[in-house]
Automatic annotation (TrEMBL):
Gene3D superfamilies: P-loop containing nucleotide triphosphate hydrolases. PROSITE patterns: ABC_TRANSPORTER_2 (PS50893). Pfam families: ABC_tran (PF00005). CDD domains: ABC_Carb_Monos_I. It comes from Herbidospora galbida. The lineage of its organism: Bacteria, Bacillati, Actinomycetota, Actinomycetes, Streptosporangiales. GO terms for molecular function: ATP binding; ATP hydrolysis activity. SUPFAM superfamilies: P-loop containing nucleoside triphosphate hydrolases. Keywords: ATP-binding, Nucleotide-binding. InterPro entries: AAA+_ATPase, ABC_carbohydrate_import_ATPase, ABC_transporter-like_ATP-bd, P-loop_NTPase. This is Sugar ABC transporter ATP-binding protein. Residues 7-244 form the ABC transporter domain.
Length: 258
């Protein structure tokens, strides 16, 4: 595990009109690790992720990537750094096949025509590299895939572009037990390949199964960022619901970590 974060946010504030959603948030993500981002509904998880992805500009704070301060003015800037986000709706087109979805908006061309052979080869190489064996054909329409297979395609699409940070928004939501296990294995493999993975989840069993660190948001504040091995299930639940658990968490409005 690396001691230096690949992505680090410091002092992030974000308001929408009179409502302040994020308060002085610090957040660090490390290569080769899964960092679980947890919090109750309305805690600010989605806003924080959209700030990382360049969708929402933050009001104040600093954004560091690989040790240098950067300015992210939009999703293209985030993607250029190597930040990819897989949202809960997956953003896949049912009427297109797997290869077409993986290259949607980033198609490879040979002259004036699409370079189908290269795209198929790159898609296959990515899936093999992630040890994905549940997809029968790269030319299957996404409409024919199961929920777990769709999630796999969306994740493979995110890592196709030499990404360094992959953020997954509730990747096991609405999946069965077997499909959840497959997706969690894939999440772990991403980290084992050296990527920094952020897992947003309400499922504490999933969080403790695959994460190396846990970052708990409470009412727009980072209550704690801790190693998963240093905390218990009940401590994380307390951080999510009350912002503190004993000496861990927000003490007089300030963050404390284990």
């Amino acid at each position: 595990m690396s001691t230096a974060p690949v992505l680090e946010l410091r002092g992030i504030d974000k308001s929408f009109g009179p409502v302040q959603v994020l308060h002085d948030v610090a957040f660090s993500v490390y290569p080769g690790e899964v960092t679980a981002l947890v919090g109750d509904n309305g805690a600010g998880k989605s806003t924080l992720v959209k700030c990382i992805g360049g969708i929402h500009p933050f009001d104040s704070g600093e954004y560091y990537f690989e040790g240098r301060q950067v300015s992210v003015g939009g999703p293209r800037d985030a993607a250029a750094l190597g930040v990819e986000i897989v949202y809960q709706d997956l953003a896949l087109c049912d009427n297109l096949d797997i290869v077409q979805n993986m290259f949607l908006g980033r198609e490879r061309k040979r002259g004036l025509v699409l370079d189908e052979d290269t795209m198929e080869e790159m898609a296959a190489k990515t899936l093999v590299g992630l040890s994905v064996r549940t997809v029968k054909s790269l030319r299957q329409h996404v409409s024919s895939l199961s929920g777990g297979q769709r999630q796999t395609v969306a994740i493979a699409k995110a890592v196709l572009w030499n990404s360094k940070v992959v953020i997954l928004d509730e990747p096991t939501a609405a999946l069965g037990v077997a499909q959840t296990a497959q997706v969690l294995e894939l999440v772990r493999r991403l980290a084992d390949k050296g990527l920094a993975v952020v897992l947003i989840s309400h499922n504490m069993n999933d969080v403790f199964a695959v994460s190396d660190r846990i970052a708990a948001l409470y009412l727009g504040r980072m209550a704690a960022q801790v190693k998963t091995s240093d905390v218990t299930h009940s401590q994380i639940v307390e951080l999510i619901t009350a912002g503190r658990s004993g000496e861990l968490g927000l003490q007089n409005g300030k963050e404390a970590t284990a």
